[in-house]
Write a structure and sequence with these properties.
With about 150 residues, the protein is an alpha+beta fold. Helix content is about 35%, strand content about 30%. The protein has helices at about 10-35, 40-65, and strands at about 65-70, 75-80, 95, 100-105, 105-110, 120-125, 130-135, 145-149. The strands form two sheets. It has a four-stranded antiparallel β-sheet, covered by helices on one side. The chain is elongated, with a radius of gyration of 26 Å. Keywords: Membrane, Transmembrane, Transmembrane helix. This is Competence protein ComGD.
């Protein structure tokens, strides 16, 4: 029995075709994950900022003190300012800003012992001057929110 001229794919050819397509999709997904991971020094900076912010909140509530937060190109500093009483010295904290980003304008915030500060937006730029992050600091202990652009 002879087969006539076949037009189409065999099962093996379809499986190979699907394997190639799936391989290309997997490579693209891995590349997207790498790009989204971003700069590790920036992740470390945001984790350090979050830790310092939470320590500021706990110290302010426990010790009845307020804080001055200075945000500059090179560093972010949390300065404790004694209000009513203090149990002992609380050190200021300095967090180094990674070289891949800088702040558009220097900001100084004051967080009172009850957590209130003026609502502020800090704009972080990349090395080329494009907006990289919007950091919105809100009143009360609700804290801040960072949005990546």
């Amino acid at each position: 029995m002879k087969f006539k001229n076949r037009r189409g794919f065999t099962v093996v050819e379809l499986l190979v075709y699907l394997a190639v397509i799936i391989g290309i999709l997997m490579i693209n997904l891995m590349l997207i994950k790498v790009v989204e991971a971003g700069n590790p020094s920036e992740r470390i900076f945001w984790n350090s900022f979050d830790s310092a912010w939470n320590r500021m909140i706990m110290n302010a509530k426990a010790e009845d003190i307020y804080y001055r937060v200075s945000i500059r190109d090179t560093d972010v500093t949390f300065y404790p300012m004694y209000a009513r009483r203090h149990a002992g010295p609380i050190r200021s904290e300095h967090i180094k800003v990674p070289s891949s980003m800088h702040v558009r304008s220097i900001k100084t915030l004051t967080a009172t012992d009850d957590g209130f500060t003026a609502p502020t937006t800090v704009i972080w730029l990349d090395q080329e001057g494009h907006v990289k992050y919007d950091q919105k600091i809100q009143m009360g202990w609700s804290g801040y929110r960072v949005e990546k652009r």
